[in-house]
Amino acid sequence: MVPLYTCCPFPSSKALQISPSFLLLSSRNPKFLPFTISRILRATSISTSATKHEEPIRTSYAGVQLEETVDETKQGKLRLDSWISSRIQGISRARVRYSIKSGLVKVNGRVVDKVSHSLRAGDKVDCVISDLQPLKAEPEDIPLDIVFEDDHVLVVNKPSHMVFHPAPGNANGTLVNGILHHCSLPTVASSEKEVLFDTQDMSDDEQDIFHGASAGAASVRPGIVHRLDKGTSGLLVVAKDEYSHAHLSEQFKQHTIQRVYISLTCGVPSASSGRVDIPIGRDSNNRIRMVAVPGLSHHGQARHAASRYKVIEVLAGGGSALVQWRLETGRTHQIRAHAKYMGIPLLGDEVYGGTKNMALSLLRPRTPPYYNDELSRLVSRLERPYLHALVLGFEHPHSGEKMRFSCPPPPDFGEILNHLRKIGIEKPISKE
């Protein structure tokens, strides 16, 4: 390992200060619930509708061909990239987009290089999947909000809208690029042709561990133990040596890492606190979205997922709520999928139903008429799912010391919250 310098011997004071309004942390020793970890990289298979039961398991998609006519039963328009992704099981949408932009896709005999091209029933699509170019992560001098650092670990407060790691179409400006520069590490590259980094397919806010990934995957994610979605802000820990990485990874596997999230929701849960135990699997109609599937998992496609929640504040007369989440499992998009299942999608989460139109439909009837213009401006500024990783706790891999950090949400979260409080705020009656 390259020697790394120490930036801060003790936790940053700003990371330990939270506005008194965030009463969810009123206890000095809050209870934390364990969770399990899902791997971000897994073996994939590929099939077309004609050979679904005949194709062997694939580890490479380069050269795969798809010749198919859009189903006549399909209604309306379909995006070209989405449709191709749905026809080739397991492939990353980023890989499909790269193939489209490379001129390897024809619609009705004509080359189409626009990924959002609209398909209609009866269109004939000819596609060849391109070879995957090695992905490099270059060190970049990107300002990082370092909450804590010593010779072994780095705790970072990730801003919203920052892509977590390099991916096709997002090779620069990511958190990993910044970490490489901060830790004085050289350029690294994937040596595996099938290491795909699709921040849209693999996005999310939950604890996707990189244990078990290929050597190429590990190389572009130096010391990364868990991750946060592009739109999610908050705390994460980075290991700076192999022992620390192994030790922290084991803590995730043993469910001893402490993590608490807060979110703003569209609407309010019917119960002020509770547990959601609903399996989660990938949405067959939209590869970038997960879906909560009640009942038993179907052929292993849906995995056990459990979340505990607590309403901290009822906002805007019930049009929204400040909700605390603690996870027993760590599935991709777990909070977002469970919130949608509960009928309270996260505010600003366009993928899971927390759209601007839904927010207005819930907030406007509860807002005084003189506030309507300001409300419209407020909703128009919703640009991401309002989810923040508020608390992170773990055992230091070398000293064994119990480390615990908290960091208030960023200004955009606070601004939305304050506006909603102006409309109305109530404290739910606790049953605890």
Automatic annotation (TrEMBL):
CDD domains assigned to the protein according to its UniProt record, in alphabetical order: PseudoU_synth_RluA_like (cd02869), S4 (cd00165)
SMART domains with a match to the protein in the record: S4
Pfam family of the protein (one): PseudoU_synth_2
Sample GO molecular function, one term: pseudouridine synthase activity
Catalyses which reaction(s): a uridine in RNA = a pseudouridine in RNA
Top-level EC class: isomerase
GO biological process: enzyme-directed rRNA pseudouridine synthesis
SUPFAM superfamilies documented for this protein: Alpha-L RNA-binding motif (SSF55174), Pseudouridine synthase (SSF55120)
Residues annotated as catalytic: D229
E.C. code: 5.4.99.-
Keywords: Isomerase, RNA-binding
UniProt protein name: Pseudouridine synthase
